Amino acid sequence: MKINSVANNGITIITLAGDIDSRTAPVVQEQVVPMTTEADKLILDLTQVSYMSSAGLRVLLLLYRQVASKKGQIILVGLSPSILDTMAVTGFLKFFSTANSLQEAVASLQS
Amino acid sequence: MVTRIDVYPTHRFGNYWLRMGHPFPFGTTFLAGGINFSVFSKAANYCVLVLYERGSQVPLVEIPFRGLFEKVDSGEVVWGEFRIGNVFCMTVFDLPYEQIEYGFRMDGHYPRVSRGQPGIHRFNPEQVLLDPYAKGIGGRDIWGIPPNWEDAFPHRGRIVRDDFDWEGDRPLEIPLEDLVIYEMHVRSFTQDPTSGCKYPGTFAGIREKIPYLKELGVNCVELMPIFEFDEFENSRQHPQTGELLMNYWGYSTVGFFAPKAGYAFTGQFGDGTQVADELKTLIKDLHSNGIEVILDVVFNHTAEGNEHGPTISYRGIDNQTYYMLTPEGYYFNFSGCGNTLNCNNPVVRNMVLDCLRYWAAEYHIDGFRFDLAAILSRDPWGFPLPNPPLLETLAFDPILGKCKLIAEAWDAGGLYQVGNFAAYGRWAEWNGKYRDTMRKFLKGEPGILGEVAQRLQGSPDLYGGRGTGASINFITCHDGFTLMDLVSYNHKHNQANGEDNRDGSDDNYSWNCGWEGETDDLEIKALRSRQIKNALAILLVSQGVPMLLMGDEMGRTQQGNNNTYCHDNHLNWLDWTLIQKNADIYRFARCCIAFRRAHPALRLPYHPHQEISWHGTQAWNADWNGRVIAFMVDGRQVSPIPDNIIYVALNMYWETLPFELPRLPPNYQWFVFANTGAEICEEVWDPGQEPVLSDQATFLLRGRSVAILVGR
Asked: Is A19 in the B-facing interface, judged by CB distances under 8 Å?
């Protein structure tokens, strides 16, 4: 699991690479949740995530709750069709805004 | 708060870190840092936890519950046993729980019993056994994919998280008498391509169709079995056609705590928690749309069959506890399916209770319908009990306190308890007598009007003192003909089942309207359509709780097959084009449901007394000997919201008859809500839009027709 983050103009872009499952989800939680304490505009780039287990879905929801509690915004970018389906049928998708590209997500947060 | 002091391993076995587990609750539980495993067996003296990497044929590790372990603090090797009473319990730390599948090996001091032979216990330490409390079960992850028949451990336990964001959802607690139940099969509902669903045949597919259910107006779905079952159990090829025949309906449980993975779109990913999430999301969304969820649960037998059947779980763990056995060790067969779960054994009783509590608490299920529930009143030797402990336990359980409990009050051993099922003021029943009486009435059988009147009132003759909610009224259900087939066939046509038409009931009380099966005869078709509407009208104006069979609202046919348990094809799949093809039937059903829901007078919680009056072709003068009856419910006396006056004329005679209408109070007029004898464009109206009746004194009703009038 690789985790990178870049902050620019008040927007934090976090890029995850690798599968998010019960082995890696705790790592994501440990590293990414603290990033939300400073940032209130967050983009999570999941283009390089090909699989997300139920533990992965739960970390996403934790992130959402963190950001929402501070009236912040979070946008998911680059969801694979399979992850999109999984999130749709398990009810997790409805919590999130999604964008097809980073540019779109940035534009949406700036507007 | 100070951290718990028991969240650290005390023992080591190879690379696995352990400690003595908690015996309660059974199954797997998440603890800080570890997974607790707990399994009961009274007869086993030896138990091993077997862990697999998901899908692997070779175990990752086998950890005995008794043996030599290294102590973590001192490093010394000690003898240890992780067992309290008859419960083997162990906590294993740092497991990658999503990637793990698990089972148990068990042994006891009993002679080996080979397949086909009777035995009190059937221990075989070679065999890996499914946890009876497994919350997720792998092995049939995608519906219909032929299994690996060589797999010695085909149904594997998975570890499932119970956390789900319900966002304040809870069971709806709609009063029973206000329900309109829709009995459906998860796969059949949307598997047909005409459903247009993105996730056909799944829980997610039902969720896509919630707008349809709302439009139809039902406020409860009853799902045919969704506990994990094996669609390949006893699968075979049809001797003539070669078609694959399966355990399609699923009335044969593998595990009582796990949703059927093959019913989930997410089943393909092998993640039990996602399967649970998908089902919970469906339930949450049904609830937010005002629709309750009842599960059809099968506690009368399991998928292990008789002594020739496979050992999956229960019989390898504690055969004598889980099953009713003859003294020689043969299986009693009150279920007609090979074995009988020993439901009034205290341990099994607790398992049933744990199971229902789990579904009510963790899945927010609104109620349960118990398949062949009369079995649940038998003692371990099969004798009916006067005060069955299991039924009493369920009736008084705090967590199930608001759940609907519905019994199919008969079994395959000849115990028929409709009307005298031990109810404890809580149990409702599938009213088989309602079905039979109304079918006879519909086909024009004379001389049964007294019984018809009882059924219309919620069967006070059967359920006096228990209220109308005790009577689940239905004319059709998954067992037997669909409504379209009830009016199209005199006899069952089950050749497709490959049993030479011997299976399925012969007592259908059906009438084909003049021709057996499909026809182009317009007169016959019109009569069938009218008979379907008559049935829908009768069902939806009866006191008690109406239950509709999936597809009857659009004229679904099974081509005369009255026992389609084995077909994964168009015989079961709902053809959604029928909504257009039989638009009149659909509209009629929809309006009748709306009418019922608009009129509390039709949903009295108690059996009507002064509210109801009986009539015939003459007002206030019913002729109880023929085929014609009318009744009026005076809703003005209904509290807390007074209703209209509703008059229903039922003419099951074949000629047109004039019905003298009861005179209404001053300033009231009769309006026509439905008249199945009218032209299609005038046979039903949206509630509130009913036209006023031109002749307020007499209603001319066509033969084999039903009229429903509203006085206001």
From this structure: no
ipTM exceeding 0.90, yes/no: yes
Show the tokens assigned to B125.
């330490």
Q: How far apart are CA B372 and CA B500, in angstroms?
A: 25
Task: For residue B276, give the 3-state DSSP assignment.
Answer: helix
Amino acid at B626: G
Q: Which residue has the tokens 């929402």?
A: A68
Phi, psi (5° rounding) for residue B324? -80, 125
Q: What is the DSSP string of B288-321?
A: HTT-EEEEEE--S-BTT-STTS---SHHHHHHHH
Element (H, E) at B46: strand B46-53
Nearest CA in chain A to B279: A90
- Tell me how crowded residue B128 is: count the other CB atoms within 10 A of its CB: 25
CA dihedral B506, B507, B508, B514 (to 10 degrees): 80
pLDDT digits (tens, 9 = 90+) for B507-566: 999 999 999 999 999 999 999 999 999 999 999 999 999 999 999 999 999 999 999 999
The verdict on whether B126 is a catalytic residue reads no
* Distance (Å, whole) CA B162 – CA A58: 12
Question: A22, B96: Cβ pair inside 8 Å?
Answer: yes
Would you say B611 and B635 are in contact if contact means Cβ atoms under 8 Å apart? yes
**Which pLDDT tens digit goes with each residue over B363-392?**
999 999 999 999 999 998 889 998 999 999
Determine contact, residues B176/B404, Cβ cutoff 8 Å.
Answer: yes
Residue B206: DSSP 8-state: H
